[in-house]
Amino acid sequence: MRVVLKNVESPQIEYISPQILSDETMEIRKEKVIKTFVQEGYDCIIIYADVEHSANFEYLTGFIPRFEEACLVLHKNGDCYLLLGNEVLGMSKHSRIKNTPLHVPQFSLPDQPLEGKKEMVDYFKEAKITNKKVGLIGWKALYKINKDMFDVPHYIVEAIKTIALSVSNATNIMIGEVGVRRINTVDEIRHYEYGQVLAASNMLKTLDSLQIGKTEIEMASILESEGQRNNVVTIFSTGKRFAKANLYPSMKKMILGDAISMTVGYKGGLSSRTGYLVSDKNQLSETESDYIEKVAAPYFNAVRTWLENIHVGMSGKELYAIIDRCLPKKIYRWSLNPGHLAADEEWLCSPIYKDSNESLESGMILQIDIIPSVEGYSKPCCENGILLANEQLRERIKYQDYEMWRRFETRRQYIKEQLGIELHEDVCPLSNMVAYYRPFLLDKGKALSIID
After folding, report:
1. Which terminus of the chain has a lower count of CB atoms within 10 Å, N or C?
2. Percent of the chain beyond pLDDT 70?
3. Per CATH, is 2-18+182-451 categorized as 1.10.260.40?
4. What is the DSSP letter of 215?
């Protein structure tokens, strides 16, 4: 088999509606969290949140603290306290988890009224954590280094330590090997599919709109839609990136031969593409004219290998080794995990690393995230997400949401017929942009494909 650039039928733009999680799903989430933290030896957990690190909090409440901070205290008997700032306090009555709200002005914006003169420790006393074994949850897997290391503000940690019997980093309850957020139900898959489709559809519209002379801002406006909150900074960059440390789209115009980088992400996943603003290799510089053979084709073969080999039950190190064999890290200089989990955030965690004994499980949503870095060439990228589903989960999807199942099958057929990739039976593509890659961006009819 070899990789070729050929005429390929373009995917169709997909439109699906956002899906609100059911009350049953939210109750299941709460039960899973309590069961797990009790098994880990805690009397209660405290989840910290701010706008950038709010997904563990939102997992139970259904909302984020926006521009404020917040804490959720959950006891093993199911009692829940929400510690909220001035402008988010009113959300307690809309929360998906039954709760007692506690107004904590210290969680509000700078210089807003600090009514009352309570210390932080007083609020945690009201939340009944005194003399309890507390699991404190941030958002990083620092527990793998030290259970006494926390990615939570010092003033909160010190207040908890003052009255708790003990406090340890318990983020593994959410994202570790026992993490409840790693595995998704049919309802959650449907919820996250919307974000995957929205990102992919916007990416396809952007690819189809590329034109010499258009600005980064013009193109970025196509990447964004439907008023949804992004889970990554939206990228549209032409030519050299990060001039004067700028991360955001500007009025810079695209010119022939530019390297282009595009990324957009929402709940459930991300879509990312790179390439050159050319019609064929003759428009590349002499040193980059072998881009397909030298970089893009080996990369695309790695994507194919990932999709054809990933399956339920394999270890993370097994998949890592497969990618390292077909796209040697020493040559292609990829440095991160060749794949990771996605949820409300773009990168939840990753079971795929060199010495990982973590198992890839049914219900996981994963991003194909392999980023080679070959000196002198643009980095290739065609990142999108998939669901891992064993036969039992696939049957549940067919029964509970046949329309979603039909979308999976339509995408699978497209990837096989147009791109020459035979997905493993456990792989359900979460959008029709999975593995669709145009390295020469002005030739909108051609994409990379596998042929015998």
Report:
1. C
2. 100
3. no
4. B
Neighbouring residues of 56: CB distance < 8 A, sequence distance ≥ 6: 47, 49, 137, 139, 171, 174, 181
Locate tokens 């003759």: which residue? 282
pLDDT at 115 > cutoff 90:
no
User: What would the DSSP string read from start to end of 179-246?
Assistant: -GGGS--HHHHHHHHHHHHHHHHHHHHHHHH--TT-BHHHHHHHH--TTPPPSS--EEEESSS-GGG-
Pick the closest to residue 393 from 191, 192, 183, 193 (CA basis).
Answer: 183
CA-CA distances (angstroms) from residue 8 to 140, 412, 419, 437?
Answer: 41, 15, 8, 10
Greatest extent of the chain over all pairs of C-alpha atoms, in Å: 73
Query: What's the CATH number for 41-177?
Result: 3.40.350.10
- Write down the domain spans for the chain: 2-18+182-451, 41-177
- Structure confidence by residue, pLDDT tens digits, 363-384: 999 999 999 999 999 999 999 9
- The string over 361-372, giving b where at least 16 C-beta atoms fall within 10 Å of a residue's C-beta and e elsewhere, is ebbbbbbbbbbb
Residue 449, phi then psi, degrees to nearest 5:
-150, 160
Rounded to an integer, what distance in angstroms lies between the CA atom of residue 444 and that of residue 438?
7
**Residue listed under structure tokens 């995957």:** 196
Answer whether 248's CB lies under 8 Å from 233's CB.
Answer: yes
Q: Mapping DSSP to helix (H, G, I), strand (E, B) and coil, where does residue 107 land?
A: helix
Q: Which DSSP symbol is given to 123?
A: H
What mean pLDDT is reported for the chain? 96
Contact 424, 307 (CB under 8 A): yes
pTM confidence score:
0.96
Q: Which helix (H) or strand (E) holds 250?
A: none
Of residues 292, 326, 328, 297, the one with CA closest to residue 309? 326
Q: For residues 99 and 120, is the Cβ–Cβ distance under 8 A? A: no
Q: Which of 340, 347, 348, 352 is nearest to 386 (CA)?
A: 340
* Tokens coding 384: 């999108």
Bridge partners of residue 237, in order along the sequence: 261
- Name the residue among 200, 199, 184 with its Cα closest to residue 266: 199
Whole-number Å distance between alpha carbons of 45 and 176: 15
How far is it, in rounded angstroms, from Cα 12 to Cα 32? 38
Residues 428-452 pLDDT 10s: 999 999 999 999 999 999 999 999 8
Strand 70-75 versus strand 44-49 pairing type: antiparallel
